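Module 6 notes. Inverse folding takes a fixed backbone as the condition and produces residue identities as the prediction. Think of it as a translation problem where the source language is geometry and the target language is the twenty amino acids. Below is one complete input and output pair. Work through it position by position during the lab.
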């Protein structure tokens, strides 16, 4: 890589790290804003991994004006990090404008993708749009009936990212959930480090959303991955350790407050696995909603496998006890939209 390109990439890294440190300092000082929001610009995906329940093959992209209004609303709420997810977000034809709007609102812009649609020109457009970090989950070395997100298919994409991306890249490998060869996670992690990326490991549920304790081979690989991932910006923590053993976690979930999941219909949910709660349109979400959900105990928390919510909760783990939620029927996306109309 030319010297000027290396210097430019280094400068972007320093600026990105400084922004991240400011976001963390703000998180410690104040509990009155979301730390992380996942927003869905399209539910459709070009793959169909058997363990995934977050996609379909028919949905149209959310119109750009609706996406921009949602980004602006998250900005009004003071959201620190906005991550674009899916489905497959690269299927949205105006994704660069969405990323640019996130940056305009002062939030850190991230994206989770399966990586299939990355080519040199697309990576350069993501650079220009202001993307700051990207994560690809790779499930196996060779594609199988569980997942086509394999190192064999994606390695050339990773090489393009190493050559052209000015944003941070993290490669997440997985164990559990029907993955046939646990050793693949270690192969993938080592390749990520070799290319200059960070590496993490996740414990995934199966297609029915159920979590099972890891087997002996999976535990061994998980332990080696933890050591490999010491350079990572998302440290594996005690939450994942308990999940690997099939044990519950005792923690205060702040979903609906410090973490928001915004579906393609523009509704706020606790997370991808608890859609329908609270099911409130983002446009109507207020500081009072943030405070209510911050103080509300989540009955699903002990068995939760959603690592991004775990990581966000660390900032508030030591303060502000929660109260049990009232027993309410969930509001589906369809019901909430009917209410809006």
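Target side of the pair, the amino acids:
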């Amino acid at each position: 890589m030319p010297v000027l390109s290396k210097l430019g990439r280094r400068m972007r890294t320093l600026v990105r790290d400084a922004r991240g440190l400011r976001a963390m300092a703000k998180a410690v000082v104040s509990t009155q804003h979301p730390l992380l929001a996942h927003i869905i610009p399209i539910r459709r995906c070009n793959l169909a991994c058997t363990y995934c329940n977050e996609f379909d093959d028919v949905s149209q992209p959310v119109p750009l004006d609706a996406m921009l209004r949602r980004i602006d609303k998250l900005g009004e709420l003071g959201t620190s990090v906005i991550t674009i997810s899916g489905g497959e977000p690269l299927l949205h034809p105006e994704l660069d404008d969405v990323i640019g709007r996130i940056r305009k609102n002062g939030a850190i812009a991230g994206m989770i993708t399966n990586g299939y649609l990355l080519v040199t020109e697309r990576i350069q457009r993501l650079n220009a749009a202001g993307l700051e970090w990207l994560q690809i989950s790779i499930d196996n070395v060779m594609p199988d009936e569980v997942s086509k997100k394999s190192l064999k298919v994606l390695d050339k994409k990773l090489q393009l990212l190493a050559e052209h991306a000015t944003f941070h890249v993290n490669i997440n490998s997985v164990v559990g959930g029907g993955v046939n060869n646990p050793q693949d996670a270690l192969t993938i992690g080592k390749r990520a480090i070799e290319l200059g990326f960070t590496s993490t490991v996740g414990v995934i549920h199966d297609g029915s959303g159920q979590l099972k304790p890891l087997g002996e081979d999976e535990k061994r690989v998980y332990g080696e991955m933890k050591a490999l991932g010491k350079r990572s910006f998302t440290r594996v923590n005690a939450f994942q350790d308990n999940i690997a053993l099939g044990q519950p976690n005792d923690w205060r979930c702040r979903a609906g407050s410090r973490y928001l999941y915004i579906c393609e219909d523009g509704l706020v949910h606790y997370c991808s696995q608890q859609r329908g709660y609270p099911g409130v349109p983002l446009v109507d979400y207020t500081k009072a909603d943030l405070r209510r959900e911050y103080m509300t105990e989540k009955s699903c928390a002990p068995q939760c496998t959603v690592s991004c919510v775990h990581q966000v909760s660390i900032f508030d783990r030591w303060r502000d006890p929660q109260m049990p939620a009232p027993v309410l029927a969930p509001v589906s996306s369809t019901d909430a939209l009917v209410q809006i109309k």
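Reference fact for the lab report: The chain has a mean pLDDT of 87.
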